[in-house]
Amino acid sequence: MDGLRALLQAGGRVSTPFACLALTGDNFHGNRGRLWHALEGNLHLTVLFSPNRPASELGLGLSMLPTLAVIDAFDRFDALGETPRIKWVNDVLLGVNKVSGVITSTLTKGEYIEHAILGIGVNIAATPQLPSGRFVQPPGSLRELAPDVLITLPSMLAGLLDSLAKRYQQLLEHGPCVLHDDYLRRSCVIGRNVEI
User: Fold this and answer.
1) Where are the extended beta strands (E) located within the chain?
2) pLDDT in tens, 19-75
3) What pLDDT is stored for residue 195 in this prediction?
């Protein structure tokens, strides 16, 4: 994600939409710069869209888009045992376990969002080791939490790429309202008392 951002900031050009999958690796970072490692069997995806539209047209849609695409991809698999839910804008939970995290970064020119870089991680086969904390959801993997459902990296990738394309088109054609409504429906925190 950082390399792609640096390339674009330096004036480099990339045909969009663009996606890059990391199978394993170190020194990745998520929200607030938290470091993580790409574990084999999990999905680690960077996606680039270049809307070149006023930020006022897109609203928070670009922040909600990757999380909703993950939810849509999960919904393609029957019998997960739990309904996937959104915690804040960047975490997807299955039960109480965090199985996916996303991050959105934009590059702007004046009032226009030229590029949106989406980082998406889905714990398919391996559960990462994360420091525990009062507000940190315990991590989990789909294989661990839904052992009877066959979910592979290729099947999740195909479903996620399709969902990302559909959600992006939805945002461009209808603005953020539809995404916002779906986000509210799948949120596990909105309308509840929370501690910050």
Assistant:
1) 18-21, 25-29, 35-38, 43-49, 53-54, 85-87, 91-94, 97-109, 112-122
2) 999 998 877 766 667 777 788 999 999 999 999 999 999 989 999 999 999 999 999
3) 67
In angstroms, the CA 186 to CA 193 distance is: 16
Q: Which residues lie across from 93 on neighbouring strands?
A: 85, 98
CATH topology of domain 2-185: BirA Bifunctional Protein; domain 2 (3.30.930)
Sign of CA dihedral 141, 147, 152, 158: negative
Domain boundaries in the chain?
2-185
- H helices of 52-116, in order, are 55-58, 61-75
Residues of the chain with pLDDT below 50 are: none
Q: Quote the CA–CA distance of 120 and 44 in Å, as a whole number.
A: 6
Long-range Cβ pairs for the range 105-108 (8 Å, 24+):
105/1, 105/5, 106/62, 107/5, 107/8, 107/9, 108/55
Structure-block tokens of residue 85 = 């839910």
Q: What is the pTM of this model?
A: 0.91
